[in-house]
Design goal:
mainly alpha; disordered N terminus; homodimer; 8 helices
Chain lengths: 170, 170
């Protein structure tokens, strides 16, 4: 995990700055304006930040981001299949197979034959899965609110809407 | 790399939907409202999308995101050190050491002893590094504009400002 961030904006070195620097080799913050102007860079930095929050919160419940998403979707959708989940979450089939096997082995979900097609399986949460998900969702909500406390509700909604527009476009 | 996204919003199943589904086991899009309300989830999806753009663009120039960022910062900052870069980009020392060694071996940067502290090294681009960076930046700009074409200039600036506020907070 990366160290705590230490980003600052470009400074104007004060008088005498050069002399103090010469021994300690301490420099002020550096010019990052080019990177800061790139959408991809800012999204990546924000993702790392939110991933830290996730790891310290939901991660402590023993769930990775994709596992958490899958449990949430199984909880919200009766008779959901692995294929549905893969499409929804943009997770490729082989990765989804491994993921589902993992949470099944841990007793969080069970598979049942699809009522209309024996080759397909629907998924549902076990009581253990439901309990873990409820706990993870409490932690997730609290962490999200704290991490995005720098935004107003309106700004939070704006970010969500704009990011969705970005990743849902063809 | 994940498959092309196929996300849609929650449908209201039309009349007869159940009967047509029964054979084909084709389901409409599933309910993702819980995940879509989470900032972390939306940032992760957006990050995956921008990462795809990066891989298809700058990645084809042979640069990973962190390498691209490092070259940009070396280009913008004379006498920059490895430590400065690590702080600015939130990259830990061991990872930064490997990264710098890699781009040095490829002849993209050279190290020189820091004029005030022989234990430190400053970095600068070689002509080869400058040429590659110029090419990568052209590609990056074009890809970014295309990928974020779903936003107005104002929206793009809003997203950048809000994400910076998120990841720069203590």
């Amino acid at each position: 995990m990366p160290a705590k961030k230490t980003i600052k904006t470009v400074p104007s070195a004060g008088p005498g700055a050069r002399r103090t620097q010469s021994k300690a080799v301490a420099r002020g913050p550096i010019d990052q304006s080019v990177m800061q102007g790139l959408v991809g860079y800012n999204i990546r930095r924000a993702e790392l930040r939110m991933r830290q929050e996730f790891d310290l919160g939901v991660g402590q419940c023993g769930l990775r981001p994709s596992e958490f998403s899958v449990l949430v979707l199984i909880d919200s959708n009766t008779l959901v299949t692995q294929t549905d989940l893969g499409h929804a979450l943009n997770i490729r089939r082989p990765n989804m197979v491994v993921l589902i096997e993992g949470i099944e082995r841990r007793g969080l979900v069970v598979r049942a034959e699809h009522e209309h097609d024996g080759r397909m399986h629907t998924l549902r949460l076990t009581p253990k899965g439901k309990t873990l998900l409820a706990q993870a969702q409490r932690v997730s909500r609290a962490r999200e609110l704290e991490a995005t406390g720098c935004w107003t509700d309106r700004e939070r909604a704006q970010v969500v809407a704009l990011l969705r527009r970005l990743y849902e476009q063809d």
